[in-house]
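Teaching soon. Invent one.


***
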Amino acid sequence: MFAKSTLSDANKKGTPRRKRTIVPKPFICKVCLSCFSKKYYLQVHYMNHTGERPHTCDICGKGFRMRWRVALHRRIHTGEKPYACPVCGFRANRKR
């Protein structure tokens, strides 16, 4: 019924196509053979297989793979809500 818009249709309208750069991914997971461009990405991914969670909440002990997630989680305990709506003033603990 309706024609689907494709990237080639966008180019016909004068919209320039972005060139994709191919990034080499030399770091390969030995468990599932997923490929990564950086060693750090492989290390974090490997934690999925081992169950390792090196960063823990100092209040409840919940574990996380990345330190920034602990900081977000800690807001649950402190009640901090740093994000406010400019229209109605609703406050939230994370940006959406």
Q: What stands out?
A: The helical segments are 7-12, 39-50, 67-78.
